[in-house]
Amino acid sequence: MVKTFFYALLLYCTTFLFSSTVVKAQSPAYWNTCYDVLASQKQNTTCSQQAIVQYILQALQDSTLQISGTFVIKYTIDEQGAIVMVEILKSPDESLNNKIMQIIRSFPNFHPAQDKEGNAIISEYTLPIRFQIEETLPYEEEKNYTLHWGNIYANTLTLDDLQYLMTQNIELRDIYGNTYSIREIEMNVIHGLDVKTAKAYKTEKPSNSMRKKFRKVAIGSTLVLNVLAETGEAGQRIKMTREYEIIK
Asked: Does one domain contain both 195 and 110?
């Protein structure tokens, strides 16, 4: 059994500041390799989010830190795209604050945010990050399991499909057809910068609160389903993830 490190970028929300006055920005700051004048703001933002995730993961790859919990970090990017201020708003372990702040401060220069006239402006960002360490099976064993949800096996869902699945059991099966107990269900619905998250425990189907929360989902959203199950072998656990695109 191995310890696996999980990282989740929960939200990437922004406010834009200039001379201590909030102004309406035409575009936020983008990761230095993600700014493309021919791409949409959504594409540039998605690229930036993914780049931030990969950068933080890479920075922690050789770390022996046992991080578990949610950090909320606020940082400011100046008109040249440099990180000029980092503040920890929430921390599960203050002894780790310096390491997290060091990583954020080491970000390469961004393409700075711009106002409606195309002028570079100072921008401020709030970045919640959740870290979790789970006892899971090694990958070579994990591939022997598959996740089943209702009788829909495609990775695209219509709104009707989603509402149907919200009433169906989720199962973890091995290659021999055995099923295992679901301990935790987590759903994240991502649409642009908006992320909605819900969890349910010791249940094999989405909870009533999940069904209410995800009754209305925008076309083009991504649904990320995370399931934690027990394999029955000395309490070993396995975490499986499936992603679905919501279509018309």
From this structure: no
* 100-112 per-position pLDDT tens digit: 899 999 999 999 9
Alpha helices in the chain (DSSP H): 41-60, 97-105, 139-142, 159-165, 208-213
Whether residue 122 sits in one domain with residue 28 = yes
* Tens-digit pLDDT profile for residues 53-95: 888 878 876 565 666 677 888 899 999 999 999 999 888 888 8
Using an 8 Å Cβ cutoff, are 138 and 4 in contact? no
CATH of the domain at 157: 2.60.40
Residues 25 and 131 in one domain: yes
Cα separation, 29 vs 123, in Å, equals 7
Q: Tally the domains of the chain.
A: 2
Angle at the Cα of 82 from the Cα atoms of 76 and 87, rounded to 5 degrees: 30
Residues 46 and 126 in one domain: yes
Backbone angles phi, psi at 245, to 5 degrees: -100, 130
